[in-house]
Design goal:
This protein has 90 residues and is an alpha+beta fold. Helices cover 23% and strands 24% of the residues. Strand 3 and strand 4 form a beta hairpin. The protein starts with a strand and ends in a 5-residue tail after the last strand.
């Protein structure tokens, strides 16, 4: 099984690339895989308990992961996952 991860903005700066293929089955495995390849990135993506950072938007096949079951969602072969840091301001 393989998913494609698209990384935007500050996450991509840390990785040095915008697209990553991996065999993660869920967010926890995705965060672990990224941390293994890019040490230190995990703190930008998730909190100490493994839940995604509050201002990190995660989409699977253009659908907000919160509407797919949140952190408990199981990736399917060929899923495209998009990580987008939220932008705030006034």
């Amino acid at each position: 099984m393989s998913i494609t991860l698209h990384i935007l903005r500050r996450c991509a700066v840390h990785c040095g690339r915008r697209n990553v293929r991996c065999a993660a089955r869920n967010l926890s495995e995705l965060f672990d895989a990224l941390e293994g390849e890019y040490p230190g990135i995990r703190e930008n993506l998730c909190q100490a308990d493994g839940t995604p950072q509050r201002f990190l938007n995660i989409y699977v096949n253009d659908e907000d992961i919160r509407f797919l079951g949140g952190a408990g969602y199981t990736f399917q072969d060929g899923d495209e996952v998009l990580l987008i840091p939220a932008i705030a301001g006034g």
